[in-house]
């Protein structure tokens, strides 16, 4: 019984202190946060059209002016219709809305209204439905969503009822392809030109085989003189031949072969002729064509005949005859050598 008054006293104290704190202060109605005005309306005219007719589509989107609206893709949004043209016309103020509305014959558009106008067309027959258009926006951290209602359009054929019921006209039979006589003249001309080219090519090949070697320029003789004048080379070769002393060893045939070789080689280099593989008579003719003096040709022919007698007829010889043969060779070289310099006597010491 002693505790009951104490409990009532504590209860009254708590109520006395909590009462003023729980009283609600008055709230200003202007500070209350109202929900944003969000709406969308779609108008499509006409609701019945023929195949391919343009239809006017108008979309009015009511959103706060500061709302960030997600991208609207009209190409995919209006399917199964085809988008022909369209654009957004935003009215951010009452003055702009009034101007836009005056052009359209309306009283005006409120601030924040977004207007899209475009033209679409249907290319399928029957009842087509324009799907509901959905819009999403971000405003003050909130996501705003709104969508329109679907609209039905009746698409009819461009043909009238009577024309559609008429039977299709009969299809005429396909005529066969007209035959045209072939023209073989271009083919004959091309074949003739080809045969002519083949004939010319064959003739050129035969002439090359028949006269190719004859018409080719004669190859110049190899230069055995090692860039020395021909007469100097001949003097050195005759001196080397005398140093071998072939006559003293009884090798008369070899000695005469070497003299004939040295003389022919010298005359080949002097007059730019090829005399090594020619006979004595042929050498005389070639020297005449090359511009060799007549006296030198006679001495050369006589000297080569003497060498032929020893080489082929096995005619005997002696050392004195060999020395005389070398002297006659020197005489031919001295007579035919170029005249711009004096004759060198170094090559004649061995024959003295």
Percentage of residues assigned to helices: 40-55%
Radius of gyration using CA atoms only:
64 Å
Mean pLDDT over the residues: 78
Low-confidence stretches: 21-25, 92-107, 343-347
Report the portion of residues in β strands: 15-25%
Number of helices: 10
Distance between the termini: 182 Å
Q: In this structure, how is the largest beta sheet organized?
A: 4 strands, antiparallel
Give the ordered list of helices and strands: HEEEEHEHEEEEEHHHHHHH
Q: Assign the structural class, choosing from mainly alpha, mainly beta, alpha/beta, alpha+beta, or little secondary structure.
A: alpha+beta
Give me the count of strands. Answer: 10
Lateral arrangement of strands in the main beta sheet = 1-3-6-5
What coarse outline follows from CA principal-axis ratios?
elongated
Tell me about this structure.
This protein has 352 residues and is of the alpha+beta class. Among the domains are: 39-158, Immunoglobulin-like; 230-351, no CATH class. The protein contains 10 helices and 10 strands. The strands form 3 sheets. A 4-stranded antiparallel beta sheet has the order 1-3-6-5. Strands 2-10-7 form a 3-stranded mixed beta sheet, with no helix packed on it. Strands 4-8-9 form a 3-stranded antiparallel beta sheet, with no helix packed on it. The model is unreliable at 21-25, 92-107 and 343-347 (pLDDT under 50).
């Amino acid at each position: 019984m002693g505790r009951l008054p104490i409990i009532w006293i504590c209860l009254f104290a708590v109520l006395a202190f909590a009462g003023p704190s729980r009283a609600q202060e008055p709230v200003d109605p202007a500070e209350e946060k109202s929900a944003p005005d969000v709406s969308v309306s779609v108008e499509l005219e006409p609701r019945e059209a023929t195949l391919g007719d343009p239809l006017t589509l108008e979309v009015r989107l009511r959103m706060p002016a500061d709302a960030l609206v997600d991208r609207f893709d009209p190409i995919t949004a209006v399917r199964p219709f085809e988008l022909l043209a369209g654009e957004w016309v935003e009215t951010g103020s009452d003055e702009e809305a009034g101007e836009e509305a005056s052009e359209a014959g309306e009283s005006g558009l409120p601030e924040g209204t977004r207007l899209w106008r475009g033209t679409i067309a249907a290319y399928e027959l029957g009842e087509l439905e324009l799907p509901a258009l959905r819009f999403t926006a971000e405003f003050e951290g909130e996501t705003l969503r709104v969508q329109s209602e679907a609209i039905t359009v009746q698409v009819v054929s461009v043909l009238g009822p009577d024309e559609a019921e008429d039977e299709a006209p009969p299809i005429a039979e396909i005529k066969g392809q007209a035959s045209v006589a072939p023209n073989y003249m271009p083919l004959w001309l091309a074949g003739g030109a080809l045969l002519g080219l083949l004939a010319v090519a064959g003739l050129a090949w035969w002439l090359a085989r028949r006269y190719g070697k004859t018409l080719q320029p004669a190859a110049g003789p190899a230069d055995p003189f090692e860039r020395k004048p021909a007469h100097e080379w001949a003097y050195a070769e005759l001196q080397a031949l005398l140093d071998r002393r072939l006559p003293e060893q009884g090798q008369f045939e070899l000695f005469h072969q070497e003299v004939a070789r040295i003389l022919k080689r010298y005359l080949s280099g002097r007059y730019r002729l090829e005399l090594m593989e020619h006979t004595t008579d042929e050498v005389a003719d070639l020297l005449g064509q090359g511009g060799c003096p007549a006296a030198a040709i006679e001495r050369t022919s006589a000297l080569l005949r003497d060498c032929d007698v020893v080489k082929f007829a096995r005619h005997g010889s002696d050392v004195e005859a060999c020395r005389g043969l070398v002297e006659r060779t020197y005489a031919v070289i001295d007579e035919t050598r170029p005249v711009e310099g004096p004759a060198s006597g170094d090559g004649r010491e061995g024959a003295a």
